[in-house]
Each structure stands twice: as C-alpha cells, then as structure tokens.
C-alpha cells in the first residue's frame, strides 16, 4: 500500500508543478501521434448539411442527429427548399431531437437568411455566421474550423469539461474564457483538430459523472487525476465508503426491527 500511495503522490506532485506550456505540449504531442485524423462524428455531405446538423446537435447526441438527418437532407437538399418550408413540416423530421420546436424555427429562419443574404453560400466569417437563427459562437466556430479550416475552436460541454479537468485552462468559468485560453496556448495549426481531440476524449474517456481514469493515457499530466488520487483523497474516499456501508447496515437492521414490530402488532389484533 505505501508504494501504491507513493505512486499517486508522485503523479500529483508532477502534475501540480508542471507549467501550463508543458501541459499543452504533452497534450498536443499525445493526440498528434494517436489521433492525427480526428474528425466530427456528425454525418454530412456539404457545408449546408453540416450547418443543419450542428444546429440540431445542441444539447443532443451526435448519434441521435445522425439518425434523423438522412431523411431531413433528402427532403431539403438545398437552402431554397428548406427556406420554402415551414417549421411545422420540419418538426415532423426532427421530433425526436431535443427542443424540436425551436430548432425547426431556427432551421427555416437560417435557410431564409442563407438564401436572401448569403446567396446560398455558407459564410466563413464567424460574425456573419452568427447572424443566422440557431447559430451561436460555438456553432459558428465549428463551421469555420471544419469547413474552412480556420484557426478557431468551438467550446461545447465536452471541451469545457476536459480542458478544465486536464488543466489546460485556469479559472475559466465560461465557454468564452475557455476558448480564449485555448487559443492563447494551443499552436494555431492545431486549433481546429484540438476541438475534436477534446470532444472525443470527453465523450468516451473523460465522461462527466465517472471519468475512466483507469484507462486514460493523460493521467500523468492531468490536474484532476492528481487532485483526486492523492493519499489524502483516497483516505477520505475510503472513510466515506466505510461510513456509507455502516449506514446501510444500520438502516437494514432498523428495517428488520420495524418489520418485526409490525408483525407482532398484527398478531396482537
């Protein structure tokens, strides 16, 4: 056990004393070698289709979006066809995604602006993209980086969580704050793909409730791992588990007594 704790303490010291620039270098080195071709998991065949898919993906899984978009893309192959539709019709194709009513309105409104203002071309400028309904900064950054390979990084819940946990960001409490720090420290040429690195890591390993630290290759420079695997933390976790077990046994004993009393009470009636 002492050796076990020593390993965690050593990792903790290493992670806590590591300079932010070093952490970024290790992050980029690992993913450049192991995920050099990371891409979005959304299915699309054109910038217009990707824009639709990203708008739909807000607070919804890529898996669900990929299930509904084939029929949607077939019915509305162009911005004109979508602009000529109604939110009520679009709703019938996307009813299984989150917030379908609002997203149906956003899609039709987006298509109308795409036709009337941008002449059917998805713009590359982040500010121009945000003029369309349903397109916030995150969606605009996705389009700019994926379609136009612009040096932009979109911050969704996965990127926000993983960047903070690893220690790529410091006291970044908003998506914009996370974005600014990532842009400051990541090499410009890696910004677009780093978005996918962080998303995929957050989706499959560094998940929200129970991160899979036992299979994570980044633990040796991860601040979260260092903080949650020190001797003090492990001892506290062990004590909490012991208390929980004791409380469960106590509850079980009380339940048994209550049942026995109830049984006796019934027998005296």
Q: How is the topology of this model organized?
A:
Elements: H1 2-17, H2 20-34, H3 47-56, H4 62-75, H5 79-83, H6 87-94, H7 100-116, H8 126-129, H9 137-148, H10 157-166, H11 175-185, H12 191-204, H13 223-228, H14 231-267
Helix pairs in contact: 3-4, 3-9, 6-7, 10-12
Structure description:
- This protein starts with a helix and ends with a helix.
- The protein is flat, with a radius of gyration of 25 Å.
- The protein has three domains: 2-34 and 154-225, Endonuclease Iii, domain 2 (Orthogonal Bundle), CATH 1.10.1670; 47-148, Orthogonal Bundle (Endonuclease III, domain 1), CATH 1.10.340; 230-269.
- Helix content is 67%, strand content 0%.
- The chain has 269 residues and is an all-alpha fold.
Tally of separate domains? 3
**In the CATH hierarchy, what is the architecture of the largest domain at level 2?**
Orthogonal Bundle
Question: Which oligomerization state do the chains in this entry correspond to?
Answer: single chain
CATH top level assignment of the largest domain: Mainly Alpha
Give the CATH superfamily of the largest domain: Helix-hairpin-Helix base-excision DNA repair enzymes (C-terminal)
Features:
single chain, 269 residues, mainly alpha, Endonuclease Iii, domain 2, Endonuclease III, domain 1, 3 domains, 14 helices, 67% helix, flat, disordered N terminus
Summarize the structure.
By secondary structure, the protein is mainly α. It is 67% helix and 0% strand. Helix 3 (47-56) packs antiparallel against helix 9 (137-148).
């Amino acid at each position: 056990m002492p050796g076990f704790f020593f390993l965690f303490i050593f990792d903790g010291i290493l992670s806590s004393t590591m300079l932010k620039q070093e952490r970024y270098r290790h992050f980029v080195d690992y993913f450049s070698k192991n995920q050099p071709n990371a891409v979005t998991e959304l299915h699309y065949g054109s910038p217009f289709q990707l824009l639709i898919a990203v708008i739909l993906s807000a607070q919804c899984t890529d898996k669900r979006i990929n299930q509904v978009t084939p029929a949607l893309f077939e019915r509305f192959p162009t911005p004109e066809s979508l602009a000529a539709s109604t939110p009520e019709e679009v709703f019938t194709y996307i009813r299984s995604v989150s917030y379908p009513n609002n997203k149906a309105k956003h899609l039709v409104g987006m298509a109308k602006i795409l036709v009337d203002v941008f002449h059917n071309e998805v713009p590359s400028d982040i500010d121009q993209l945000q003029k369309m309904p349903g397109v916030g900064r995150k969606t605009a950054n996705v389009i700019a980086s994926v379609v136009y390979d612009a040096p932009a990084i979109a911050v969704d819940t996965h990127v926000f969580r993983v960047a903070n946990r690893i220690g790529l960001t410091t006291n970044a409490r908003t998506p914009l704050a996370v974005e600014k720090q990532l842009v400051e420290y990541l090499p410009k040429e890696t910004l677009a793909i780093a978005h996918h690195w962080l998303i995929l890591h957050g989706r499959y390993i560094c998940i929200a409730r129970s991160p899979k630290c036992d299979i994570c290759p980044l633990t040796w420079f991860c601040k979260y791992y260092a903080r949650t695997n020190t001797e003090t933390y492990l001892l506290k976790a062990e004590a909490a588990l012991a208390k929980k077990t004791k409380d469960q046994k106590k509850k079980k004993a009380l339940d048994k007594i209550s049942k026995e009393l109830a049984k006796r009470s019934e027998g005296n009636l």
